């Protein structure tokens, strides 16, 4: 991926090396048989962020969330009350856009040298809150189906413990690499899922419920339009994040002293895609991945 003046500033190189290493490992794992076992926890994490995006969007638009569940095949469902048309559009769009936005946020936090341990603990807190409040408590209180509770609780607890363990016991460099790898997985999974939604939204594709299909039902506009819109927005978010990532930090000048950073340049490669789970969404009130 190239940018105008696509030079990586001197002070950005350490983070860029970690990011490129994380991307390279993702590509290697893509070609290794059964390597999906290693990336499985990351896929589950992406599903939590995706469904969490739907839940947060519902709350922001004055709706309530009845339940959030994650399945063993890395699909998910979020049941919310339905508001007006704009509310439905916002909630339906928040899954894929939310995943990409969170991945972009991690990239920016890495670039700003925010402590990786703090980022990991914050991510663990998000997963734990989604699990306990919307994965367990709300389904029990609302009388919704309990079938998704066991795996959602197991997966949420496992991710929370794993993220906190890395933050607590890993070295600072390993923790930074882990955050970089997490960001890459979020970005690549979001793009791959959107590609799947695009093909499922084709007039010639089998009728499979997706977030784009929910948007089509709510607005009367074809699902493929929404798939293209989400892809465009996601690429825009990624582009802005990478612009911020490669930019140099502003240097403070001392009286009589000029600080000049030597610049080296190389182009960032296009981020590759990796295997991901099938997207599944229920019509009407459930919002699913």
Report what the structure shows.
The chain is mainly alpha-helical and 289 residues long. The protein has one domain. The chain is built from eight helices and three strands; from the N terminus they run ααββααααααβ. It has helices at residues 13-30, 36-60, 85-111, 116-142, 149-169, 172-200, 211-219, 223-246; strands at 65-70, 76-80, 286-288. Strands 1-2-3 form a three-stranded antiparallel sheet. Helix 4 runs antiparallel to helix 5 and helix 6 (172-200) runs antiparallel to helix 8. The longest helix is centred in the middle third of the chain and has 29 residues, at 172-200. The model is unreliable at 1-6 and 251-285 (pLDDT under 50).
Query: How does the helix and strand content classify structurally?
Result: mainly alpha
User: What's the Cα radius of gyration?
Assistant: 20 Å
The helix tally amounts to 8
Order of strands in the sheet with the most strands? Answer: 1-2-3
Q: Give the distance, in angstroms, between the N- and C-terminal Cα atoms.
A: 27 Å
Helix content: 55-70%
Q: Supply the number of structural domains.
A: 1
In what range is the share of β-strand residues?
under 5%
